[in-house]
Amino acid sequence: MEEQGYFYRDTWAEVDLDCISENVTSVKKHLPQQVSIIAVVKANAYGHGDVQIAETALAAGASFLAVAFMDEAIALRNKGIDAPILVLGATRPEDINMAAKFSITLTVFQKEWLEEAKKHLTTNQSVALHIKVDTGMGRIGVRSVEELHTIHRLIGEEKRLMLEGAYTHFATADELDQSYFQQQLELFETMIAALPERPKYVHSSNSAAAIRFPKAYFNAVRIGIAMYGLTPSLEMEKEIPFPIKEAFSLHSRLVHVKKLTKGDKVSYGATYESEEEEWIGTIPIGYADGWLRKLQGQEVLVAGERSPIVGRICMDQCMIRLPKYVPVGTTVTLIGKQEDQFISVNEIAQKLETINYEVPCIIANRVPRLYKKGGKIVDLKNDLLNNYQA
Ligand SMILES: Cc1ncc(COP(=O)(O)O)c(C=O)c1O
């Protein structure tokens, strides 16, 4: 099939880059002009595709990227991204020279880390650093003014190290009760004021805070989930003052259609039994694709109608009860729109008893991602190869 060009299976995800672009534009309009957008593209851009999302976000007005690990930053550099990239997580101190080599900005989160990293510094190139302040997330970060001062001094003593930023991360910015957020914000303001000089970038807000709390903007915000068109939490959904558009959808095709007679069984354990004559279709997606067994009973869309997944989900396949005879090759939408029906990422998250963040992240790499622009699948892979010789 032409639109599937690069793979040989009937299951794929589509990522609508126009949605990403519109979401970044909407966030940008919502922010004062002097506030920069750091696009969070860790974990393969929450499962959407690192370089495709990075390029789209930068073109739409983001000026910085953030990832979790240095490997993710190097992968982006190797794919031709030259925008600044901040590694949010802990990097091994001995890898500081790699950060210099690839112009990657690192997070300093503890004075011991900095002492160790300085010992390993052998390069002539400089490394930009952002200090992470732990104001209540309890993950990584500096927890006292004293330690902050030590870190500031240690950076100042080494001309190859450049203090470029300071930041914190909120634990409850998406919750209706704002008291813990307020406490974290006040502590961050105190810590920033205690720095002998204000670094170029000061940032604290994730998507939820960037949408809700102008007092926490400083001069940059880190946007992840809203860029992908997903709500930071159901609680604050109503507070989003602009439309955000879901970019990720998931599709498969019927590869086998059959009529069962009353009493026939389906899948492992033979737990599903047809109550009458039923049309059952098989789709080639299973738990090894991230379509977890817990999704048994979840509906999918076929010919614009909802059809339930019946029987246990297998590693690579699952079965659905069709509303009527539907031919092999028909598209089945597991996440996304068909006619007037829509299965949102939130619906899948609810069925999995988890948060929407997890859903595109767990759709495995073996599910190819296709990219859409102007409503059409674009051959971005080829464009990227031509542009960057990755
Ligand atoms: C440190 C940090 N900043 C920003 C983000 C982006 O958060 P969100 O996706 O809620 O916008 C994350 C995501 O988990 C993060 O860990």
Summarize the structure.
The chain is of the alpha/beta class and 390 residues long.
Structure characterization notes:
- This protein is α/β, with parallel strands linked by helices and 390 residues long.
- The chain folds into two domains: 18-229, Alanine racemase (TIM Barrel), CATH 3.20.20; 248-380, Lyase, Ornithine Decarboxylase, Chain A, domain 1.
- Helices cover 28% and strands 26% of the residues.
- The chain has helices spanning 17-30, 42-46, 50-59, 70-78, 96-101, 111-120, 145-156, 179-194, 207-212, 345-351, 358-362, 380-388; strands at 11-16, 36-40, 64-67, 85-87, 104-108, 127-132, 161-167, 201-205, 220-223, 248-253, 256-260, 265-266, 272-273, 278-283, 299-302, 305-310, 318-322, 331-338, 341-343, 369-373, 376-378.
- The strands form three sheets. Strands 1, 10, 11, 14, 15, 16, 17, 18, 19, 20 and 21 form an eleven-stranded mixed sheet that branches. The chain has an eight-stranded parallel β-barrel with strand order 2-3-4-5-6-7-8-9, surrounded by five helices. Strands 12-13 form a two-stranded antiparallel ribbon.
- The longest helix is centred in the middle third of the chain and has 16 residues, at 179-194.
- Residues 384-390 have low confidence and may be disordered.
- The chain binds pyridoxal-5'-phosphate.
- The site of pyridoxal-5'-phosphate has 12 residues, from α9 and β9.
